[in-house]
Amino acid sequence: MIGLSAELLIFVALMLLGYGFGSLIERRHRKSIIRRELELNRLPAIASRRPPEDRPYAQQLVSGSVVIGSDYFKTFLSGLINLFGGRVTPFESLIDRARREAILRLKEEARDIGASHVFNVKYETARIATGRVPALEVLAYGTALIPAADISRSTHDTSQA
Amino acid sequence: MLLSNLEFLPDRTIKSHLGLVQGSSVRSKHVGRDIGASLKSIFGGELKGYTELLHDSREEATERLLEQARSLGANAVINVRYSTSSIAAGAAEIFVYGSAVLLDE
Amino acid sequence: MVQYENRQPAEDINVTRTHPLKTFAIYALSALILVVLLAVLMQFFGGFIAKRVPFSVETRVTEAVGIELGSRDAPPELVSYLNELGLRLLPYIDMPEGMSVDIHYDKENVFNAFATLGGNLMFYRGLLSVLPHENALAMVMAHEIAHVLHRDPAASLGGGVATALVLAGLTGNAGTGPASGVLSRAGMVTGMQFTRRMEVAADEVAVAAVGGLYGHTEGAADLFLAIAAQRSAGSDETSDDSPGLFERFASTHPLDTDRIDAIKTSAKKYGLLTEGATTPLPDDFQRWLAAN
After folding, report:
1. B87: which of A109, C32, C158, C205 lies 20 to 30 Å off by Cα?
2. CATH no. for A2-160
């Protein structure tokens, strides 16, 4: 009987820890994502496969990736939701944060090499099988276009028009 | 060696296509990382160990792709794509493939 | 020339903005109700089916399985004494035609006695050695015979199997995460409520039988008193002076203190004397137990 009570206690503690730390980490991450997104919006990531031809660009493949794990509370709650089906809301924010973080890391890499755009951006999502830990990896990659500074913009603009 | 996931390069001409090249890397984490991750499973958040592991793995796969391309005498790989699959518990395969081409200098 | 820019889309389009605790409350409550309902339903259903199986079939199946109960070299005098006491109790327990009990003895020092399929009762040395007199032994024996009368071993098996099957299906759906473990635990605790009801019902029959046999219920509660004393002395690992609601809820047997009270109540209900002279155990009883 004492064994049962102890198990219950551990469970409640894990749920509280998971919820407390999980939502703290999530809140902080969301804040940081929004701040960095506003800053990096000046470096557009585009899904188009056709690069602009207004001027010559150097190209380089860039990527950003992140592995985000669920917390105990989210994992437990998703198991409950599985019984009834429907929207698994605890994982929505997890996946959203992972996707946005991956793009941010891609943009950060592009910014560091002096790119002006990233083209043909693709996402790749994988469930990471880590035993009991539900986690996912999101990879974002694309081709960074680095403007060649020595060629003047006007000459190419006319040819483009 | 130029690496791009675009299908063509606006200001360069492709002299010849040399075929499909690929790189792959299967890796798993060591026990220490696994213990760290299972602790993280209580609190949630980024699993940095895994992010690094997959990043290294992707670098290795890309390096193998480039090696294949070099062996074909190519100077660029275009239309590059990545794919990830978890093969077994704790092991992931990173696969990268693309078209090896010879560009005009 | 095409303009390329990244604008900031509105937040919370891909993320549902409900408070996680609210979602949790709704789903946890629904899941709990679902599991408890299913467990109750399956206990009833499984128990109902199992009890409809004729006792003769139960006996034959038990014999066919051929599990040997009790120690092979159990002292024959002890075994025949136990069976004889059982026969003396039977008239006071309304056992229907065709039902009988077979009593076995095991030399393990386990503090336990149980009734199992086919009317087989098992007594362990550990339990027998602490009995102060025959009245206490008769109480335990009548209690186990009552389980046979009520077809409790069959009902427990049927209900347990049905519950386990349904819970396995249910928790399998909840994945391998922590949720499935908690849910199956909740289902099992629900099942225990049934076991406990069986114990209470068996106690009531036993009190009537002991009262009928000896003319009074003196000493019937002595075994439980001994257990209660042992617990409060702290010799047991479950040495909890005031058991909480949770312990009460999650245990298969009623608490000893509750049982002692219930025995008094039943005695009053049947108009039995609560005081009288206790009958001693046979002179050789301790010698039989000591035999190796």
Report:
1. A109
2. 3.30.110.70
Domains of chain B and any CATH numbers? 2-103 (3.30.110.70)
Helices (H) and strands (E) in chain A, counts: 4, 3
Residue of A24, A59, A70, A123 best to disrupt the B interface, most CBs of B under 10 A? A59
Q: Which residue of B has its CA nearest to A29?
A: B45
B96's enclosing H/E stretch is: strand B91-103
A: neighbours with 3+ CB pairs under 8 Å? B, C
- Please report, for chain A, the start and end positions of each structural domain, with discontinuous segments joined by +: 2-160
Which member of C1, C6, C179 has the closest CB to residue A41?
A: C6
∠ CA A10-A13-A19 to the nearest 5 degrees? 140
By C-alpha distance, the chain A residue nearest B11 is A56
Q: What is the pLDDT along chain C (292 residues), one digit of tens a residue?
A: 678 888 888 888 888 888 999 999 999 999 999 989 998 999 888 888 888 889 999 888 888 887 778 888 889 999 999 999 999 999 999 888 888 899 999 988 888 888 988 899 999 998 898 888 999 999 999 999 999 999 999 998 888 888 888 888 877 766 656 777 788 888 888 888 888 888 889 999 999 999 999 988 888 888 887 777 766 654 444 434 445 555 666 566 777 778 888 888 888 888 888 888 889 999 889 899 888 7
Partner-chain contact C246 A8, CB within 8 Å: yes
Contacts of A1 in chain C (CB under 8 A): 238, 240, 243, 247, 250-251
Q: Does the beta-carbon distance from A89 to C20 stay under 8 Å?
A: yes
Q: Of A69, A124, A126, which has the smallest distance from its Cβ to B44's Cβ?
A: A69
Q: What is the pTM of this model?
A: 0.74
What residue segments make up the domains of chain C, in order of their start? 58-64+72-151+182-290
A89 in Cβ contact with A152 (< 8 Å)? no
In the three-class reduction of DSSP (H, G, I as helix; E, B as strand; rest coil), residue A115 is classed as coil
**Cβ of A130 and B34 within 8 Å?**
yes
**Checking phi first, is residue C267 left (phi over 0); if not, alpha (psi -120 to 50) or beta?**
alpha
- Beta strand spans in chain A (E): 57-69, 117-130, 133-147
